[in-house]
Structures are given as C-alpha cells and as structure tokens.
Amino acid sequence: MNYNPKIGLALSGGGVRGISHLGVLKALDEVGIILTKVSGSSAGAIAGSMYCQGYSPEEILRIILDTNYFKFLRPAISWKGILKLESVGDLFKQYLKHDDFSKLKIPLAVAATDIKKGKVVYFDEGELIRPIMASACIPGMFEPIQIGNKYLVDGGVLNNLPVEPLEGICEVLIGVNCNHLPEESNIRNMKNLIERSVIMTMNFNVYSRKSKCDYFIESPGLGKYGVFDIKKAPDLFQAGYEQAMKIIEENPSLRSLGNSALNKNT
C-alpha cells in the first residue's frame, strides 16, 4: 500500500514572470504530483487560484493571452496610486464565478500586506476575488484594496514565498520563485537600477524561506523579463516547465511523489 504525503506548493509573485509557474504546474501534472494546498503572492496568487479552480496550465495561459488585462485598469487620481484594480474584479468573476475559497477544487491561501500595520495577512476562506486582487496590488502603481478595516497591497512586499500557510498541513513543501536575477555587468540606466533593486529585495524575502522548502524550483534568469512583458509569455511558460522537469529528474524522491499518486489512480 502506497503512502501519499500531503504536498504543498508556494508560488512567488513577479508580474508576468509568474506565467512560468504555469509551466511548473504542467510538469507536476505530467508526473502525477497531486497538491494538497497551494499558496501564493501576487502573480502566484493569480496563477494558483486559476489552477485550484480546475483550469489546466495551458488553459490559464490561453486565458491570459486572450484577455486584454490592461483594459480593466482605470486611472486612480489620488495620492494612493496611479491605477485602480477594482474593475479587474469583473475579469476574475468570469473565471471564478463563485468568489469563494471553499468552492475551489484545491485549497488555496494568498498573502497580502496590511500597509497600515506593516504585517502580512493570509486569506484562505470567505470571499476569494478581492484577496487575490489585494495580493497583486503593486504599491504606488495601484490603489490599495480595502477589505474590512484593512488597506492591502502586494503580498510580495513582506512575503514573496508564502510557505507559512502550508506549514503544519503539508508534509512536503515545494517552493517556486520566478525572479532569478542573472549577473549584470553593466547597469545601463536609472530604470534598470531601480528594477534590479526591487527584484533583489523581493528575492531576499524568498531566499529567507528557501530552507523551509523540501524542493525549490527557480528558472535561471527570469529576472531579466519586465513585469508586464506579456509578449514573452510562451517563453516564460516553457522556462518554468523545463526547469521543473530538470529538478524532478535530478530528485528521484520528488518524482516518486508523482509516481505514488499515479499508482494510486491506476
């Protein structure tokens, strides 16, 4: 009789680079790894919610490519941010009609940052869409999302690899980061300097949690892609898939998690 441990997956934020998570999910699907719970920040929360709803990685990629995401953004003329994320809720409602964590096929937790208290907030029950929006609310670019008395911004500000909601529930933790920075011999301009510094900060709080993961998947060089560089979506998907398959091949113990699940279903 095969024993199938509970497996948790934590997905980092990283804008469009989060599409690489879909490639990782495709690889896990192909070897039969069945997830017990998923957690995510920002782009990881978006990818995770769609996967936990039951969409395949390829379906999610197609939705992203077919949807003109930016038409759902409205200018926010206030000190809080440049753009409003509120109208993006209409887009999410097309694909997450129930708007309820409990209706997902796989349990999900998303991380957001309470900007007033300076603390991480985790959501895994109740309404679904607004916590996802809060988790992806880049500070300074988007107006904070209000839930109750909390004003929330991007979860990646304080926790860009939210393994904590998986601890005590899952016996095996897989962490995925989509922001690996290649070495840079020439900082070309101020924009390049700022973008690189932001990613370094995000990665610091990812790497501080790396030791909590039994397996860690990080496609090389994805930090070179822009946060909104949607034209690179197919490349990002493939990069995630190839790196995940590489890690699976290098770690027979990880592959065996999938094999045991496949054996259970045959």
UniProtKB/TrEMBL annotation:
- PROSITE patterns referenced in this protein's UniProt entry, alphabetically: PNPLA
A Pfam family hit: Patatin
* Annotated motif GXSXG, positions: 40-44
Keyword Lipid metabolism carried by entry: yes
Q: What is this protein called?
A: Patatin
Q: What range(s) does the PNPLA domain occupy?
A: 9-167
Question: Is Hydrolase one of the keywords UniProt gives this record?
Answer: yes
InterPro entries, per this entry?
Acyl_Trfase/lysoPLipase, NTE, PNPLA_dom
Q: Which SUPFAM superfamilies match?
A: FabD/lysophospholipase-like
- Sequence motif GXGXXG, residues: 13-18
- Where does this chain carry the motif DGA/G? 154-156
GO BP, one annotated term: lipid catabolic process
Which residues are annotated as active site? S42 (nucleophile), D154 (proton acceptor)
Q: Which GO terms describe its molecular function?
A: hydrolase activity
Domain of life of the native organism: Bacteria
Q: Which residues form a coiled coil?
A: none
Q: Which UniProt keywords apply?
A: Hydrolase, Lipid degradation, Lipid metabolism
Origin organism of this chain?
Answer: Algoriphagus sanaruensis
